[in-house]
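seq/struct pair 1
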Amino acid sequence: MAKKRTYPRSCKLQALELVKTRKKSINEIERDLGITPGLLHKWKARMKADGAEAFPGKGRLKEDEELIRRLKREVEVLRQEREVLKKALAIFSASAEKSTHL
């Protein structure tokens, strides 16, 4: 099985700039650059959809996706803290009831 090739953001932007100049067809540009057929079409669609946030890099998320991920993590921490507080309240309530019955 062939290893998946990755391309840096700068390479993608340069290839898309070649597409904009339209001196050659997309298929010819892909052949010249040694890029998998159809890849420039995917890059072009991604650039159109994401604009300046397209191609954030390996392991990086777009700004809004990073915010969502961070907020989900924060919500989970808050849920865990709430559960600890509920358990502590139950323990202290039980202790208070025992001391008033004596």
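seq/struct pair 2
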Amino acid sequence: MSPEKFVYLTKDRLVEIEKELKKMKTTGRKEIANKIATARAHGDLSENAEYDAAKEEQGLFELKISKMEDMLSRVRVIDRSQFSNDKVHILSKVKIKNLKTKKTFDYVLVSPEDSDFQQGKISVTSPVGKGLIGAKLGEKVKVNAPAGLLEFEILSIE
């Protein structure tokens, strides 16, 4: 399998996803089966919108389970201690300064599955993430973002 097919997660995030998947496969499936049974009890299935909606929900739910199982089959657990602080990599906590606006930002670079902009976790596959990977302390990087060309300076790497 090529490295770009891997899904990189921390051990904690892997455990969270495994718990969510287990819950979906047990209680989640039971809840949807109950919805289908309730809708089926309302009579003629050919004109039963509630039954059709429950079956559609079941299909989407099973697709989500399938996607999660596929992702878990490609997981590589990563540990922050595996990397040095001399350049930006996955799990790096970086402080950057936008050279145009002079604003500073703190980000942690994570896998796409872990990204959460509200918590300052950006994906290594995002435009900014791609631009920062491999950069060194004090280096100026240019990023082609949807907002246009941005230029940042790396202020710190942890």
